[in-house]
């Protein structure tokens, strides 16, 4: 995969799907924090705080990472592995990977929609939670900035590969539901539950997207 056919993936707990459908959008952590919406939190609180309050999106320096909806350029992310193991001391969630959904969108469609509607977007070369990530809001040189081999690697013990695999796409404030083209799920049970809730979105069992 490279930029010509890139897909982007946002993971969320199935319990959050009703709110996403009701709001017709995936909300950023910043927006969620200002609203009275109950969500199933599956991330690390310390990292969420850092993204909300400390890490600036350098191409839009008046904004922080937590004001954006985050996506990876691959399914089966490193974060999903951590959730699968259910043993990280900084994560309260312990429900494993089965209830986690992959919301897939087309990278080009997302950028085109953002440009048309004057919405900020950016991508990074590594995990946006780090203070040394590079942020870009232009498509030129993206194939040089993102290591696609690392992004798609299933083996990430190597430190460089692990960092580069976690490149992110960031979409300011909220990501419209209309841009979600597919929901990847872990099992038949999850597919049945999700299919009852969504219309006009493909719901597919994608075992290769999980551990």
UniProtKB/TrEMBL annotation:
Catalyzed reaction equations: a thymidine in DNA + NAD(+) = an N-(ADP-alpha-D-ribosyl)-thymidine in DNA + nicotinamide + H(+)
Alphabetical list of InterPro entries matching this protein: DarT
Binding positions for NAD(+) per the UniProt entry: 10-12, 51
A Pfam family the protein falls into: DarT
Keyword set, alphabetical order: DNA-binding, Glycosyltransferase, Nucleotidyltransferase, Toxin-antitoxin system, Transferase
Active site: 51, 168
Leader sequence residues: none
Domain DarT, residue spans: 6-211
GO molecular function, one term: nucleotidyltransferase activity
Family, per entry: Belongs to the DarT ADP-ribosyltransferase family.
Record's protein name: DarT domain-containing protein
């Amino acid at each position: 995969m490279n930029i010509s056919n890139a897909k982007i993936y946002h993971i969320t707990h199935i319990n959050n799907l009703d709110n996403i459908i009701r709001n017709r959008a995936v909300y950023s952590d910043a927006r969620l924090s200002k609203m009275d919406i109950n969500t199933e939190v599956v991330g690390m609180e310390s990292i969420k705080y850092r993204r909300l309050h400390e890490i600036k999106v350098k191409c839009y320096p008046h904004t922080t990472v937590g004001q954006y909806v985050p996506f990876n350029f691959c399914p089966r992310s490193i974060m999903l592995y951590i959730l699968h193991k259910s043993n990280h001391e900084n994560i309260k969630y312990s429900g494993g990977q089965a209830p986690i959904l992959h919301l897939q969108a087309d990278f080009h469609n997302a950028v085109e929609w953002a440009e048309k509607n004057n919405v900020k977007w950016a991508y990074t070369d590594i995990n946006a939670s780090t203070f040394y990530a590079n942020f870009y809001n232009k498509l030129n040189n993206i194939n040089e900035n993102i290591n696609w081999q690392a992004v798609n690697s299933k083996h990430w013990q190597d430190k460089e590969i692990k960092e580069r695999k976690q490149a992110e796409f960031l979409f300011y404030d909220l990501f419209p539901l209309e841009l979600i083209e597919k929901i990847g799920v872990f099992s038949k049970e999850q597919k049945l539950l999700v299919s009852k809730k969504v219309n006009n979105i493909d719901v597919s069992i994608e075992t290769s997207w999980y551990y």
